[in-house]
């Protein structure tokens, strides 16, 4: 009787071991689905509490094998350089992908701004699939152009400059025309950002203020409020991807959250991320995950911090839901991290002053209620000098662009080796 | 008091700052021998004054290096494999803006002398200055340094400090 049971068990185990090899033949998305299916099967069987462990052991073996393949295959990811875009004669500070060109067959467009006072527009050619410089926006800014941002519709481009102005450009035929200039900051404007609907624009600068502008018909912009609160130079501003909440990062080591309860109400600082569990040096950049419930910040203190909030509560109109510190990624960087960007798939890319690009993903190990992140890939010497900006392409493919002090922009593809 | 890199500087301060040029020459003379790549030595040797390091005393300059005690050999750390340079200087001037400007001059001189892939950290020697954390933070914030160097007045002053005044 025992012999029969053992023989049967060996057969079943063999079947499951074969099943464990399936992930090798599946594409990435199916591998994940397959793993989920196996996990469900395993928990179903173990919950049935059959005669002995031998009913759940084979599926556990299959699960172990599948997980091993997935880790192995993940480890064979590399950041492949597709193209190096040259043309700027000074450091490239910032890059931005046009969100409207995210559709499958539409060639992507990238804007870059530089210390040479110009903004370059790079367009992917449909035939050669490589990016060429389509336009150079010059003779408008008289100092370094620090930041650029496309409106959600992709029709307008806002550029922020050290000359204390923000220029709005419109794509007119094959060329770009400066349709508006926003003045008001006392000194260098460091960043510009459009809200999700394209109705509001935010700028920030060394004068420690954040300005909110309303976009009106006819390319008119009106400043609706000047937000004071930061005690130092404001490095970056960004709107939340789904709600009209504004975030600003500063040299004073904090991130401030600005919100207006009513549509016509006053904007005020509803939270400051920094007093406890915050950064200990200048916060350079931040970004949100696809859902908008997680936030990652990067700083001169060599760490990345992940924050979370109950967005659904806010979306249902229940008042402000505060952001809480979730975890800190430290020990991965040894020089200032200038830029961080979260892809739609959940891969966090960071660009730092040590010329490397690092990719982080949420770790599958670790306790269920405490998310942790692991380093997926480190691309050393991605550039010859400091990396100032990293941006994932908003399309389907895993394309990443990076801008550096060496005056070049590189376009990378995250691909599996096999 | 928060020192601002773009603060205006007095004429009398420039005389004082000119003596900081000695720091530049010593910094380069001391940094150079440690930078093993021969190309760098050849490239920068043209900038070096023929005077020996030990006894720099120029009649034009009121202060000598010993008197200034602003920089010494162990204040310069060079790591060739990692292409990293760290300079620690002691500002003898009380005024915060002066310390920031001296640091800025050091940074500009190094930026112009070293190959572009070298990373550098300029720091005020610990315990020598009241607002050293603030000065260090500003000196190592490349965006602030870049913006400051776009200011023509500041750039002129830095250039004047770094220009060799004796043959």
UniProtKB/TrEMBL annotation, chain A:
Repeat (WD) residue spans along the chain: 85-123, 138-170, 182-215, 227-258, 276-308, 380-418
Keywords in alphabetical order: Membrane, Repeat, Transmembrane, Transmembrane helix, WD repeat
PROSITE patterns cross-referenced by the UniProt entry: WD_REPEATS_1, WD_REPEATS_2, WD_REPEATS_REGION
Residue stretches in coiled coil: none
InterPro entries the record matches: CIAO1/Cia1 (IPR028608), WD40/YVTN_repeat-like_dom_sf (IPR015943), WD40_PAC1 (IPR020472), WD40_repeat_CS (IPR019775), WD40_repeat_dom_sf (IPR036322), WD40_rpt (IPR001680)
Pfam family, one: WD40
Transmembrane parts of this sequence: 14-38
Top-level taxon of origin: Eukaryota
Family: Belongs to the WD repeat CIA1 family.
Job description of the protein: Essential component of the cytosolic iron-sulfur (Fe/S) protein assembly machinery. Required for the maturation of extramitochondrial Fe/S proteins.
PANTHER family: CYTOSOLIC IRON-SULFUR PROTEIN ASSEMBLY PROTEIN CIAO1-RELATED, WD40 PROTEIN CIAO1
Protein name according to UniProt: Probable cytosolic iron-sulfur protein assembly protein CIAO1 homolog
Origin species: Hibiscus sabdariffa (roselle)
From TrEMBL, chain B:
InterPro entries: FSCA_dom_sf (IPR034904), MIP18 (IPR039796)
Source superkingdom: Eukaryota
Gene3D superfamilies reported in the protein's UniProt record: 6.10.250.1280, Fe-S cluster assembly (FSCA)
Sequence intervals crossing the membrane: none
Family under the similarity heading: Belongs to the MIP18 family.
Name of the protein described by the UniProt record: MIP18 family-like domain-containing protein
Originating species: Hibiscus sabdariffa
Record lineage: Eukaryota, Viridiplantae, Streptophyta, Embryophyta, Tracheophyta
């Amino acid at each position: 009787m025992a012999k029969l049971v053992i023989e049967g068990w060996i057969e079943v185990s063999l079947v499951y071991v074969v099943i464990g090899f399936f992930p090798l033949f599946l594409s990435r998305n199916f591998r994940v689905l397959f793993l989920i299916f196996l996990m469900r099967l395993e928990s179903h069987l173990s919950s049935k509490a059959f005669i002995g462990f031998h009913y759940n052991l084979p599926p556990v073996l299959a699960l172990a094998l599948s997980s091993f393949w997935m880790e192995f295959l993940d480890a064979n990811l590399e950041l492949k350089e597709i193209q190096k875009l040259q043309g700027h004669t000074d450091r490239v500070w910032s890059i931005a992908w046009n969100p409207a060109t995210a559709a499958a067959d539409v060639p992507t467009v990238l804007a870059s701004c530089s210390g040479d006072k110009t903004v370059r527009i790079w367009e992917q050619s449909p035939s050669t699939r490589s990016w060429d410089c389509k336009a150079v926006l010059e003779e408008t800014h008289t100092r370094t152009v620090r930041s650029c941002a496309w409106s959600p519709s992709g029709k307008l481009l806002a550029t922020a400059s050290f000359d204390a102005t923000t220029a709005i450009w419109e794509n007119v035929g094959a060329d770009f025309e400066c349709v508006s200039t926003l003045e008001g900051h006392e000194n260098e404007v460091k960043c510009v950002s459009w809200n999700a609907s394209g109705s509001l624009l935010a700028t920030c600068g060394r004068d420690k203020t954040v300005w909110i502008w309303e976009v009106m018909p006819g390319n008119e912009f009106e400043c609706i409020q000047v937000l004071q609160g930061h005690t130092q130079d404001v490095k970056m501003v960004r709107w939340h991807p789904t709600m009209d909440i504004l975030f600003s990062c500063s040299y004073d080591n904090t991130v401030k959250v600005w919100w207006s309860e009513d549509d016509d109400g006053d904007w005020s600082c509803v939270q400051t991320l920094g007093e406890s569990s915050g950064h200990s040096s200048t916060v350079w950049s931040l970004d949100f995950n696809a859902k908008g419930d997680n936030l990652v910040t990067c700083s001169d203190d060599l760490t990345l911090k992940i924050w979370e909030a109950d967005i659904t509560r806010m979306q249902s109109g229940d008042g402000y839901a505060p952001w809480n510190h979730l975890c800190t990624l430290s020990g991965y960087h040894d020089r200032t991290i200038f830029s961080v960007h979260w892809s739609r798939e959940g891969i966090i890319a960071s660009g730092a002053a040590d010329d490397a690009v690092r990719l982080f993903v949420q770790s599958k190990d670790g306790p269920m209620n405490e998310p942790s992140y692991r380093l997926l890939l480190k691309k050393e010497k991605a550039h010859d000098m400091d990396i100032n900006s990293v941006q994932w392409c908003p399309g389907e493919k895993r394309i990443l662009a990076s801008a550096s002090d060496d005056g070049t922009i590189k376009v990378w593809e995250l691909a599996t080796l096999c | 008091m928060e020192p601002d890199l773009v603060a205006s500087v007095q004429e009398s301060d420039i005389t004082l700052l000119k003596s900081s040029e000695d720091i530049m020459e010593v910094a380069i003379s001391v940094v150079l021998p440690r930078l093993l790549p021969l190309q760098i030595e050849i490239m920068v040797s043209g900038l070096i004054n023929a005077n020996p390091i030990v006894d720099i005393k120029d009649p034009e300059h009121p202060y000598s290096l010993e008197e200034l005690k602003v920089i010494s050999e162990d204040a310069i750390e060079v790591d060739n494999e990692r292409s990293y340079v760290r300079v620690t200087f002691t500002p003898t001037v009380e005024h915060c803006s002066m310390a920031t400007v001296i640091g800025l001059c050091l940074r500009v001189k190094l930026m112009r002398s070293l190959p572009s892939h070298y990373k550098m950290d300029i720091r005020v020697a610990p315990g020598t200055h009241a607002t050293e954390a603030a000065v260090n933070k500003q000196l190592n914030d490349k965006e602030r340094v870049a913006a400051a160097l776009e200011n023509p007045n500041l750039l002129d002053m830095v250039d004047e400090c770094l220009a060799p005044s004796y043959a």
